[in-house]
Specification:
heterodimer, A: Rossmann fold, five-stranded parallel sheet, four-stranded parallel sheet, 9 helices, B: alpha/beta, Urease, subunit C, domain 1, TIM Barrel, 2 domains, nine-stranded mixed sheet, 23% strand, globular
Chain lengths: 309, 454
């Protein structure tokens, strides 16, 4: 039996022990990031393909950096300027890229289930870097990593996820990852942006920030204008009045997170972003180490102590 | 109104030879004829010539003898909802492959939907389809024309002329008639043109960009949901219109408990309405969509277990009148894409009976006789003669081995497409012989190899 799955498509692919294994591995890679030479030879001679069908800054750059710091050869393909733009199907593109015999394909797609499909068409390990509104498992892992560093453990932590849950793949992966790690999750947002049936993921839901003081961690989501085909709230002004997380609405000891990019002045106030409670910068920084750990576990997966020695 | 009988609106190959056939020792089950026992059945010149106790009828001088060995003989099934994709999308299905798939599923007549390219909204298109069916169709096909031109929902088609050209009825299937005012005019005009008006019920304002049933699973997957009430509110609205205009309306592919309730109320109130349900909605739920396998993407979507149970009960009680497959072939490359991008639809002709027999009869939820009755009842809803196993009737029969188990799709499909939601499942009940409109339309290799049937 494999000790680690071949692909990372969903947080559902990982139980708590495996999540902890990724986090422990990420800790050791984080240590490497502090060195002058930030590279380890783990994936020397192997190829990682980044296939991005959606605009992305931090996810694509951190995957690229993660693969390079593991000494892999990296090919990055973007939807614009490639044969994708000329109408090549996902299957054909994946089969073409598979001819390079990649060890891993990292895919971001605007469509639910794209990563899972790719896994069926290639010998490579597939990492889901976001598929539509479905999942973004590496974001959830870096969020857990960031929180674990601060809190020591997520057990019993009360985490509020605030905002546009409907259009958020981060929310779905986070709810699963946080609850799996022992946290209690509440989702909060306008009822038009909370999908019916979300409680089945094991979270509570509420429509107001009234009880926000209960939270240990406030995880604010981006208002995803780009995914909205219609008006879900009467105005951003009214949304901001009801749901914007500000320093006034938070206790000073609450932690604040956001997956970025932030709509400053919409879901978060400027002071909140810049406050010492905000872990947003730490989340970005964790991205590289966590993605190194994911690639490592999928492609090498040796015992933990031997990894970086 | 046209004087022709509705059965003249079925079109099939004209060169098919009338069957000459003795089926010996079959377990004949025809609920309408009150038959549920072993018989010999003699078919001469495409008609049922004689029924006798097993072993009593001598082999005919010419023709074939099938030793049925206790296998079940049913009246041929009738499917009121099939997409033959012709004209325009022959790479998905043709009249030839679609009717072969129908025959392989035990169907002796099918009704084709008009959402083709071009749409069947003019007599000329209908005429050319009838012409193709006379050359290619191994099972008689009836054609529905569209209610509105180009399925655009705004202008009525020339319904009377389309009826004269052979249309069995009308539907904009694939799309709802959104405008109540538009539909009302069509219902009024039905008094002149005749023909059943069949409706795909969906309020696009509520279904939006939805690709699956709205519920816990759509929330989990991040897929836009289609709430049940996008269907049921339209069933209620259109049942009220049907009652007011005393129109004959048929509700297609009902999928949820609320629609069942709306249909029951409409019947209670005296509306001339009927309903159909698909094998996939009777046997599968949105749980299967968790796999993101696009074979499970159809419209209306697979719904909750409570909906499924309500549909089975409605079919049992007769609130829902008949089974329809909504056979919707799509090419492999069209379905090999992410779930949201895949077209809606599953094939169903070849698996309808086996799916219902395996999942509902063997599971103890429905009687076999009920399934047979509901799989033939679609004929009467469109004014067509219902297949019967009785002396003097045209031979419309299917012989089924209920004990045969097989993996769906393992030996391929007669349909040109393989997007079957039951693909890979093991089902019980194989159709071994189909006689449609008096001619042999399908026989398995087993039967041919045994030399029983040439």
């Amino acid at each position: 039996m494999r000790s680690f799955p071949k692909h990372l498509i969903s947080i559902d692919d990982l139980d708590r022990a495996r999540i902890e294994r990724v986090l422990d591995r990420a800790e050791s890679f984080a240590e490497v990031q502090g060195r002058e030479i930030k590279k380890v030879p783990a994936l020397r001679g192997r190829t990682v393909v980044n296939l991005f069908y959606e605009a992305s800054t931090r996810t694509s750059s951190s995957f690229e950096l993660a693969a390079k710091r593991l000494s892999a050869d990296v090919v990055s393909v973007r939807a614009s300027g490639s044969s994708i733009e000329k109408g090549e199907s996902l299957k054909d593109t994946v089969q073409t890229l598979s001819a390079y015999d990649p060890a891993a394909i990292v895919i971001r797609s605007p469509h639910v289930g794209a990563a899972q499909l790719v896994a069926g068409w290639t010998e490579a390990s597939v990492v889901n870097a976001g598929d539509g509104k479905h999942e973004h498992p590496t974001q959830a892992l870096l969020d857990v990593f960031t929180l674990r560093r601060r809190l020591g453990s997520l057990d019993g932590a009360r985490i509020w996820i605030v905002g546009d849950v409907m259009h958020s793949r981060v929310a779905r992966s986070d709810i699963m990852a946080f609850t799996r790690m022992g946290a209690e999750v509440t989702v909060c947002g306008p009822p038009t942006l909370i999908p019916r049936g979300i409680e089945a993921l094991g979270c509570r839901q509420t429509a107001t920030l009234e009880d926000l003081h209960e939270a240990d961690v406030v995880y604010v989501l981006r208002m995803q204008h780009e995914r909205m085909r219609e008006a879900f709230v009467p105005s951003l002004r009214e949304y901001a009045r009801r749901y914007q997380v500000t320093t006034d609405r938070m206790r000073p000891d609450q932690l604040l997170m956001h997956p970025g990019p932030v709509n400053r002045g919409v879901e978060l106030s400027g002071e909140a972003i810049d406050s010492s409670q905000a872990l947003i910068g730490e989340q970005v920084k964790a991205g590289v180490a966590v993605r190194m750990a994911v690639l490592y576990e999928l492609l090498v997966g040796a015992p933990i102590l031997a990894a970086v020695a | 109104m046209s004087a022709r009988t509705e059965s003249t609106r079925l079109f099939a190959r004209q060169d098919a030879r009338p069957a000459e056939l003795l089926i010996r020792g079959a377990h004949v089950l025809d609920p309408r004829a009150g038959l549920d026992e072993p018989h010999d059945v003699l078919v001469q010149d495409g008609h049922i010539a004689e029924l006798g106790s097993p072993g009593s009828l001598p082999a005919p001088d010419s023709g074939d003898v099938v030793e049925a060995g206790g296998r079940h003989l049913f009246p041929g099934f009738v499917d009121p909802h099939v997409h033959l994709r012709t004209p325009g999308q022959e790479y998905k299905e043709t009249i030839e492959t679609g009717t072969r798939a129908a025959a392989a599923g035990g169907f002796c007549a099918i009704i084709a939907m008009p959402n083709t390219a071009p749409v069947v909204d003019e007599a000329a298109v209908l005429g050319s389809l009838a012409e193709i069916a006379r050359r290619e169709a191994c099972v008689p096909v009836g054609f529905l024309a569209s209610i509105t031109r180009g399925l655009a929902g705004s202008e009525m088609t020339e319904m009377a002329e389309l009826r004269d050209a052979g249309a069995l009825g009308f539907t904009d299937d694939g799309r709802p008639v959104v405008s109540a005012g538009m539909l009302r005019k069509a219902l009024q005009y039905q008094r002149l043109a005749g023909g059943v008006i069949a409706l795909h019920e969906e309020d696009p304002q509520l279904s939006g960009d939805g690709v699956m049933h709205e519920g816990a699973i759509s929330a989990r997957l991040g897929l836009a949901g289609i709430p049940s009430l996008s269907e049921s509110t339209m069933v209620s609205r259109d049942a009220a219109l049907a009652l007011y205009e005393d129109a004959r309306v048929h509700f297609q592919h009902l999928s949820c408990v609320e629609s069942v309730q709306a249909l029951a109320q409409a019947k209670e109130a005296g509306a001339r309405v009927s309903g159909e349900v698909c094998p996939h909605h009777l046997t599968l739920t949105d749980e299967y969509v968790r796999t993101l396998d696009t074979r499970f993407k159809m419209n209306p979507p697979l719904r909750a277990e409570s909906d499924r149970r309500a549909l089975v009960e409605a079919l049992r009680s007769g609130v829902i009148d008949c089974v329809a497959t909504d056979h919707a072939p799509h090419a492999g490359h069209e379905k090999e894409v992410p779930f949201e991008q895949a077209p809606m639809g599953t094939t169903g002709l070849e698996t309808a009976f086996a799916a219902l027999f395996t999942e509902l009869v063997l599971a103890g939820m429905l009687e076999l006789s009920t399934v047979v009755e509901r799989m033939t009842a679609g004929a009467a809803l469109y004014g067509l003669p219902v297949p019967r196993i009785a002396v003097g009737e045209a031979a419309n029969l299917c012989l089924v081995d209920l004990d045969a188990r097989y993996e769906v799709g393992r030996d391929g499909y007669a349909s040109r497409s393989s997007n079957c939601c039951f693909h890979g499942r093991t089902l019980h009940g194989r159709v071994e012989l189909t006689v449609a409109g008096g001619a042999i339309a399908h026989r398995t290799r087993v039967l041919r190899a045994a030399g029983a049937l040439r």
